[in-house]
Protein backbone atom coordinates (compact mmCIF):
# COMPACT_ATOMS: atom_id res chain seq x y z
CA UNK A 1 0.00 0.00 0.00
CA UNK A 2 1.34 3.41 -0.93
CA UNK A 3 0.66 6.65 0.89
CA UNK A 4 0.54 10.02 -0.84
CA UNK A 5 1.65 12.81 1.49
CA UNK A 6 0.53 16.29 0.50
CA UNK A 7 2.43 19.28 1.88
CA UNK A 8 0.13 22.23 2.54
CA UNK A 9 1.57 25.70 1.86
CA UNK A 10 2.91 27.68 4.84
CA UNK A 11 1.60 31.25 4.62
CA UNK A 12 4.20 32.69 7.00
CA UNK A 13 7.17 31.65 4.86
CA UNK A 14 6.40 33.83 1.83
CA UNK A 15 8.30 37.03 1.00
CA UNK A 16 5.72 38.65 -1.29
CA UNK A 17 1.95 38.10 -1.21
CA UNK A 18 -0.76 39.60 -3.41
CA UNK A 19 -4.14 39.99 -1.70
CA UNK A 20 -6.91 40.34 -4.30
CA UNK A 21 -10.26 41.68 -3.12
CA UNK A 22 -13.60 42.24 -4.88
CA UNK A 23 -14.22 45.55 -3.06
CA UNK A 24 -12.20 48.09 -1.08
CA UNK A 25 -12.50 46.57 2.45
CA UNK A 26 -12.67 42.78 1.93
CA UNK A 27 -8.94 42.15 2.52
CA UNK A 28 -9.02 44.13 5.76
CA UNK A 29 -12.16 42.38 7.06
CA UNK A 30 -11.09 38.89 5.97
CA UNK A 31 -7.38 38.97 6.72
CA UNK A 32 -6.36 42.34 8.20
CA UNK A 33 -4.58 41.05 11.29
CA UNK A 34 -2.63 38.43 9.33
CA UNK A 35 -1.68 41.09 6.77
CA UNK A 36 -0.34 43.31 9.59
CA UNK A 37 1.57 40.34 11.04
CA UNK A 38 3.09 39.39 7.67
CA UNK A 39 4.05 43.00 6.89
CA UNK A 40 5.68 43.42 10.32
CA UNK A 41 7.77 40.30 9.67
CA UNK A 42 9.11 41.78 6.42
CA UNK A 43 6.74 40.18 3.90
CA UNK A 44 5.91 42.53 1.01
CA UNK A 45 2.11 42.86 0.85
CA UNK A 46 0.36 44.06 -2.31
CA UNK A 47 -3.34 44.87 -2.68
CA UNK A 48 -5.33 44.48 -5.89
CA UNK A 49 -8.96 45.68 -5.83
CA UNK A 50 -11.14 44.33 -8.63
CA UNK A 51 -14.21 46.61 -8.56
CA UNK A 52 -14.49 50.34 -8.01
CA UNK A 53 -16.80 50.16 -4.97
CA UNK A 54 -19.43 52.50 -6.49
CA UNK A 55 -22.39 50.47 -5.17
CA UNK A 56 -21.37 50.46 -1.50
CA UNK A 57 -24.03 52.90 -0.28
CA UNK A 58 -27.78 53.00 0.40
CA UNK A 59 -27.83 56.74 -0.30
CA UNK A 60 -29.43 57.29 -3.75
CA UNK A 61 -28.11 60.86 -3.86
CA UNK A 62 -24.46 59.93 -3.43
CA UNK A 63 -22.72 60.06 -6.82
CA UNK A 64 -20.72 57.08 -8.06
CA UNK A 65 -17.70 59.30 -8.67
CA UNK A 66 -17.72 60.59 -5.09
CA UNK A 67 -18.12 57.12 -3.58
CA UNK A 68 -15.40 55.61 -5.79
CA UNK A 69 -13.02 58.38 -4.70
CA UNK A 70 -13.96 58.10 -1.00
CA UNK A 71 -13.57 54.34 -0.91
CA UNK A 72 -10.18 54.49 -2.56
CA UNK A 73 -9.00 57.02 0.03
CA UNK A 74 -10.41 54.82 2.83
CA UNK A 75 -8.63 51.75 1.44
CA UNK A 76 -5.32 53.59 1.19
CA UNK A 77 -5.61 54.75 4.82
CA UNK A 78 -6.60 51.27 6.04
CA UNK A 79 -3.85 49.52 4.08
CA UNK A 80 -1.24 51.94 5.32
CA UNK A 81 -2.18 51.08 8.91
CA UNK A 82 -1.55 47.40 8.12
CA UNK A 83 1.78 48.03 6.35
CA UNK A 84 0.64 47.35 2.77
CA UNK A 85 3.45 47.97 0.27
CA UNK A 86 1.48 48.86 -2.89
CA UNK A 87 -2.09 49.28 -4.12
CA UNK A 88 -3.45 48.31 -7.56
CA UNK A 89 -6.97 48.86 -8.96
CA UNK A 90 -8.88 47.24 -11.83
CA UNK A 91 -12.02 49.43 -11.51
CA UNK A 92 -14.67 47.02 -12.80
CA UNK A 93 -18.19 48.30 -11.92
CA UNK A 94 -19.13 47.24 -8.38
CA UNK A 95 -22.02 44.75 -8.19
CA UNK A 96 -21.90 43.58 -11.80
CA UNK A 97 -18.72 41.54 -12.10
CA UNK A 98 -18.72 38.88 -14.80
CA UNK A 99 -16.21 36.19 -15.71
CA UNK A 100 -14.90 37.77 -18.92
CA UNK A 101 -11.76 37.34 -21.03
CA UNK A 102 -10.85 40.88 -20.02
CA UNK A 103 -11.01 40.06 -16.28
CA UNK A 104 -9.01 36.84 -16.80
CA UNK A 105 -6.35 38.76 -18.72
CA UNK A 106 -6.21 41.58 -16.16
CA UNK A 107 -5.72 39.16 -13.25
CA UNK A 108 -3.05 37.08 -15.00
CA UNK A 109 -1.34 40.32 -16.10
CA UNK A 110 -1.34 41.55 -12.48
CA UNK A 111 0.24 38.30 -11.24
CA UNK A 112 2.89 38.44 -13.97
CA UNK A 113 3.60 42.08 -13.09
CA UNK A 114 3.70 41.85 -9.26
CA UNK A 115 5.19 38.30 -9.19
CA UNK A 116 3.96 37.19 -5.74
CA UNK A 117 4.91 33.92 -4.04
CA UNK A 118 1.25 33.49 -3.06
CA UNK A 119 -2.10 35.05 -3.91
CA UNK A 120 -4.95 35.31 -1.39
CA UNK A 121 -8.58 36.16 -2.10
CA UNK A 122 -12.18 35.48 -1.01
CA UNK A 123 -13.38 31.85 -1.04
CA UNK A 124 -15.81 31.59 -3.99
CA UNK A 125 -16.99 28.19 -2.74
CA UNK A 126 -18.30 29.61 0.55
CA UNK A 127 -21.78 28.06 0.92
CA UNK A 128 -24.52 30.70 0.62
CA UNK A 129 -22.21 33.40 -0.75
CA UNK A 130 -24.69 35.50 -2.73
CA UNK A 131 -22.50 38.42 -3.79
CA UNK A 132 -21.66 37.77 -7.42
CA UNK A 133 -18.53 39.97 -7.24
CA UNK A 134 -17.13 37.67 -4.54
CA UNK A 135 -17.94 34.45 -6.42
CA UNK A 136 -16.49 35.75 -9.69
CA UNK A 137 -13.39 37.27 -8.08
CA UNK A 138 -12.58 34.10 -6.13
CA UNK A 139 -13.04 31.85 -9.16
CA UNK A 140 -11.19 33.97 -11.70
CA UNK A 141 -8.31 34.62 -9.28
CA UNK A 142 -8.04 30.84 -8.84
CA UNK A 143 -7.99 30.40 -12.62
CA UNK A 144 -5.35 33.14 -12.92
CA UNK A 145 -3.18 31.44 -10.29
CA UNK A 146 -3.47 28.18 -12.20
CA UNK A 147 -2.37 29.58 -15.56
CA UNK A 148 -0.13 32.64 -15.00
CA UNK A 149 2.90 30.42 -15.66
CA UNK A 150 1.54 28.98 -18.91
CA UNK A 151 2.82 30.61 -22.16
CA UNK A 152 -0.39 29.78 -24.04
CA UNK A 153 -2.49 32.01 -21.82
CA UNK A 154 -2.43 35.65 -22.93
CA UNK A 155 0.92 35.49 -24.82
CA UNK A 156 0.47 39.18 -25.68
CA UNK A 157 1.55 39.94 -22.08
CA UNK A 158 4.95 38.49 -22.93
CA UNK A 159 5.43 40.61 -26.03
CA UNK A 160 4.65 43.68 -23.90
CA UNK A 161 7.59 42.87 -21.62
CA UNK A 162 6.11 40.70 -18.84
CA UNK A 163 7.45 37.24 -18.03
CA UNK A 164 5.57 34.10 -17.03
CA UNK A 165 5.16 33.66 -13.29
CA UNK A 166 4.06 30.66 -11.20
CA UNK A 167 2.61 31.21 -7.73
CA UNK A 168 3.42 28.66 -5.03
CA UNK A 169 0.08 28.95 -3.25
CA UNK A 170 -3.47 30.19 -3.63
CA UNK A 171 -5.31 31.02 -0.43
CA UNK A 172 -8.78 32.06 0.65
CA UNK A 173 -10.18 34.05 3.56
CA UNK A 174 -13.86 34.06 4.54
CA UNK A 175 -13.76 30.31 4.05
CA UNK A 176 -15.90 27.55 5.50
CA UNK A 177 -13.13 24.95 4.96
CA UNK A 178 -10.03 26.43 6.65
CA UNK A 179 -6.81 24.43 6.89
CA UNK A 180 -4.55 27.17 8.26
CA UNK A 181 -4.81 29.11 11.53
CA UNK A 182 -2.73 32.23 12.11
CA UNK A 183 -2.31 33.58 15.66
CA UNK A 184 -2.73 37.34 15.50
CA UNK A 185 -2.94 38.59 19.11
CA UNK A 186 -0.51 41.51 18.62
CA UNK A 187 -2.22 42.59 15.41
CA UNK A 188 -5.94 42.44 16.25
CA UNK A 189 -6.11 46.16 17.04
CA UNK A 190 -4.40 46.92 13.69
CA UNK A 191 -7.24 45.12 11.94
CA UNK A 192 -9.94 46.94 13.91
CA UNK A 193 -8.24 50.29 13.19
CA UNK A 194 -8.08 49.43 9.48
CA UNK A 195 -11.79 48.53 9.40
CA UNK A 196 -12.63 51.85 11.10
CA UNK A 197 -10.99 53.65 8.14
CA UNK A 198 -13.87 52.45 5.93
CA UNK A 199 -16.23 55.11 7.31
CA UNK A 200 -18.45 55.13 4.21
CA UNK A 201 -19.18 51.44 4.85
CA UNK A 202 -19.31 51.08 8.62
CA UNK A 203 -20.26 53.53 11.33
CA UNK A 204 -22.33 53.54 14.51
CA UNK A 205 -24.30 50.31 14.96
CA UNK A 206 -23.03 48.62 11.78
CA UNK A 207 -19.42 49.20 12.84
CA UNK A 208 -20.09 47.91 16.35
CA UNK A 209 -21.84 44.82 14.96
CA UNK A 210 -18.95 44.06 12.59
CA UNK A 211 -16.31 44.51 15.29
CA UNK A 212 -18.24 42.30 17.73
CA UNK A 213 -18.87 39.65 15.06
CA UNK A 214 -15.24 39.49 13.92
CA UNK A 215 -13.84 39.57 17.47
CA UNK A 216 -16.12 36.76 18.63
CA UNK A 217 -15.23 34.72 15.56
CA UNK A 218 -11.46 35.25 16.10
CA UNK A 219 -11.74 34.26 19.78
CA UNK A 220 -13.72 31.12 18.90
CA UNK A 221 -11.14 30.16 16.27
CA UNK A 222 -8.41 30.69 18.91
CA UNK A 223 -10.16 28.30 21.33
CA UNK A 224 -10.39 25.62 18.61
CA UNK A 225 -6.77 26.15 17.52
CA UNK A 226 -5.60 25.40 21.11
CA UNK A 227 -2.39 27.40 20.80
CA UNK A 228 -2.83 29.60 23.82
CA UNK A 229 -3.47 32.64 21.64
CA UNK A 230 -6.42 34.96 22.04
CA UNK A 231 -7.20 35.83 18.41
CA UNK A 232 -6.89 33.66 15.29
CA UNK A 233 -7.65 34.26 11.60
CA UNK A 234 -8.21 31.22 9.40
CA UNK A 235 -7.52 30.50 5.74
CA UNK A 236 -7.80 27.75 3.17
CA UNK A 237 -4.43 27.36 1.46
CA UNK A 238 -3.83 25.18 -1.57
CA UNK A 239 -1.13 24.71 -4.19
CA UNK A 240 -2.17 25.37 -7.82
CA UNK A 241 -2.02 21.61 -8.48
CA UNK A 242 -4.76 21.05 -5.91
CA UNK A 243 -7.08 23.38 -7.82
CA UNK A 244 -7.85 21.12 -10.76
CA UNK A 245 -9.47 17.66 -10.79
CA UNK A 246 -8.41 17.11 -7.18
CA UNK A 247 -11.10 15.33 -5.20
CA UNK A 248 -9.21 15.77 -1.91
CA UNK A 249 -8.84 19.56 -2.07
CA UNK A 250 -12.20 20.12 -0.38
CA UNK A 251 -11.23 18.26 2.80
CA UNK A 252 -7.52 19.21 2.86
ZN1 LIG B 1 -16.85 42.63 -0.88
From TrEMBL:
GO molecular function: hydrolase activity, acting on carbon-nitrogen (but not peptide) bonds, in linear amides
Domain of life: Bacteria
InterPro entries on file: GlcNAc_PI_deacetylase-related, LmbE-like_dom_sf
Gene3D superfamilies: LmbE-like (3.40.50.10320)
Any Pfam family hit: PIG-L
PANTHER family reported in the protein's UniProt record: N-ACETYLGLUCOSAMINYL-PHOSPHATIDYLINOSITOL DE-N-ACETYLASE, N-ACETYLGLUCOSAMINYL-PHOSPHATIDYLINOSITOL DE-N-ACETYLASE-RELATED
Protein name according to UniProt: Diacetylchitobiose deacetylase
Species name: Pullulanibacillus pueri
Amino acid sequence: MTSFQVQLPDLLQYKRILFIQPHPDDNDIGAGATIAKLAASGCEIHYLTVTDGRSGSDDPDLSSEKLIFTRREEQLAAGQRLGVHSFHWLDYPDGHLEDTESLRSDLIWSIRLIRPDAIITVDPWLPYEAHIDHVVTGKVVSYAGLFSGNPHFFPEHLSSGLALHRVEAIGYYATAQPNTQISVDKYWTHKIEAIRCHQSQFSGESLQFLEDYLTTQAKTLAVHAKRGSQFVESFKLLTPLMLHMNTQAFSM
